[in-house]
Write a structure and sequence with these properties.
The complex is a heterodimer of chains A (525) and B (363). Chain A is 35% helix and 22% strand. Chain A is an alpha/beta fold and 525 residues long. The two termini of chain A are 43 Å apart. In chain B, 70% of the residues lie in helices and 2% in strands. Chain B contains 16 helices and 2 strands. In chain B, strands 1-2 form a two-stranded antiparallel sheet. Classes of the chains: A alpha/beta (525), B mainly alpha (363).
Chain lengths: 525, 363
Amino acid sequence: MFVCGESQDVPALIFRGNYMKENSILEMRGISRSFLSVKALQNVDFTLCRGEIMALMGENGAGKSTLIKILTGVYTKDSGEIYLKGHSGPVEISSPQQAQELGISTVYQEIPLCPNLSVAENIYAGRHKKRLISWRKLNEKAEKLLSSLGIPASPVQPLGSCSVAVQQMIAIARAVDMECSILVLDEPTSSLDEQETERLFELMRQLRSKGAGIIFVTHFLDQVYDICDRVTVLRDGRLTGVYNVSDISRVQLVAEMLGRELDDSPVAAEAEDKSVGEVLYHGRNIHSSENIAPFELTVRKGEISGFAGLLGSGRSECVRAVFGADKGTDGNVVMNGKTVSIRKPSDAIKNGIAYLSEDRKAEGIIGELSVRENIILALQVKKGFFRPFSKSEAEGFADEYIRAPGIKTASADTPVKELSGGNQQKVILARWLLTHPEYLILDEPTRGIDIGAKADIQRLVKKLADDGMSVTFISSELGEMLGICSRLFVMRDRKMVGQLSGRQLSEDNIMKTIAGGEHDGAGPQ
Amino acid sequence: MMAQDRSKRNFLRFFSGKQFLIPLAALLALVIFNLIADPEFFRVTLGRNSAGDPVLAGNLISILDNGSELAILAIGMTLVTAASGGQDISAGAVIAICGSALLRVLCGSDLTSGQIQSPIIVAFLVCCLAGMLCGAFNGALVAFFRIQPMVATLILFTAGRSIAAWINNNELPMVADSTFASFGGYIKGVPMPTPFFIALICFAAVWALLRFTSLGLYVQSVGISEKTSRLNGLDPRIVKVGVFVIMGLCCAVAALIKVSRLKTINYSIIAKDIEMDAILAVALGGNPLSGGKFRMSSSILGAYVIQFLTTTLYKFDVQSDALSAYKAAAVIILVVLSSPVVREKLMKLLRSFSEPETAGKQV
């Protein structure tokens, strides 16, 4: 049998001639899908071979999940064709049930199994045609399956008592037992530790050797190079390229995902002069329950810093840990020379830190409340329960802070959910500015808002820094970060791997640091 | 011309935006119905009560009197609904507990003589404490263990009346003290029933609470978005426990009125099903039962509308066991009319009547 991708001797043959057609078990051709006016996928081709692990990568909005959902029957495609091995013509996949019958199994990040049923029940649930079930036989069958895959679980123990990694493996075992030829793993490793991940990989290698095709969606670069044979990169709903993992360097891969050319772009101007302010915030061993490596962070007065890294690299989790937004936050923090304890948001606010979340709808606005109430909220909470602002005070604040950043609203009484995204973002920004923070953290403040509002916010951030405020600015757009930040903390695989400032700030350097691995010297490890 | 346009728009906004309109319209409908059926309904006379004092009597007075407990509970229920997005169904049982505690302290060991053994204020404070403890228990289940409010309060709903009976060893203490009786009856020389004034004091208290603290902002923020509230430095758990404690206090005050009216307690019947009416008052007031924004005055008016309906039905000699069915029918009409779907349709209709005119004027 010819196994594409894994065999090192014949990589040239994979992309040429008829070999691929013979070996491929899945071909998706010219897949397009729109949601309202947004083109989520445009003419994307995707091929999966027998016995290979194909990484599917891309940043936010690249179309990974749309592609997966079309394959698994959750969404329908607007156009394009799907071919499966063993079917002569194109197949239509209209429901998850049908996808399963065609041998396509999916394991999602969150496991949709029943934690209070036994392992065996979970493996076989919903697949019995017969009315009567022999529990003894069922358990024996499960036992055999588990041991053949080397999964350390007993068929009779409740699923909930297994670790998350084992639960993932059991979900895979279920898929295997259904004799799937195509297994889709959607970010299975994001909540696993190193050992658990290694166990999962061992299982994936076993399945590969048995001839299954595995589609592996992940944000972790290291894992792609660890286990995958080929990688498909999507960007903005289009296919960027398909590569043999052994043929593409990490930097190239990062550049493909971000859509940047690899060359030395000019260093951000005046960057070096700005980093001379005194230290405002210094935190050591900052950590939270969100599975990020403890890190150290120094923030200077009047400096705009940023966190760079791929999606899922832990950018947001880091700043959330600084603000105490996630559970289990702690660290040794010194602000203005004094040791402070920041374990929850109210601690951070008390110490003059403000945080604008990337999830504007769920964690930013209070939709039904008015613009005025949204603006005064944080300051009111800071001031205290028994000292509410009078109506005239609140109106004064609202008027001032609606005018300053140019919020377009019918009145201060309008519910904030009726405003456009950009104006909502400005309302949240106004809310935090009203608390007069010393350190302002902005997580993706310009994502999904119109260009005018974006420019307004960028201008405002620069002005605030000129006035002496420390700002941390996160954006998925590298160009935007380079234009605003004078210091970048670089993240890879949930670890802070470097720090760039002054002349080091170039797209090339950032991508090299993000990629890590074979490129050294881009930043301190 | 411009002013006219604006006034028209304001008029429209009043109809669409002001939730106050829903209970007001219901009240108006009931008033019109009664006016047509029997204008005598609204007669208020000056009679004499059993003690021989001059007091006001009539259906309107009875509504203001008997609606007091419901209106007081509606205050707590509104806050609980807004902050937790769920309802407290244990209110009636908590009233039984509070009432039982009140009597236990009042009567001490001597259950039958009718003489009170300790100051009323002490007994009432114990009653309040019992109510707040029950509220804190419910609130803790909801806030810290994230149990659905209805499920969490189901515990006291089920167990509350047994606890109430147990507090007094399942005996029925009697109180014959005239001062105590005045809380549910009349103060000498005042022609209006006392519960009405107690309710007024509660309204004033909650008005002050909303005016002089940030309670309203906190409760609505937590009810709409818990995550955002936390990121703004609020502790949603404390806010939730807080509103349940206020709910407990409301139950305690209602218990004082109820027990004073009865001069004793009946563990299994006292304040039965009152929580359902309180929830209805909140809904009738146009407050979303899923939490978030609320309007206190609207809920309170809703409570009196429900009492108005009950009194109307009694007036028309509806059998007490058939009462619920009639009430349900009336409620269905009210709630459907005030639902967003119907309201939107009505608004469209209203606009189509007024729009052509304004358009013509502008040309």
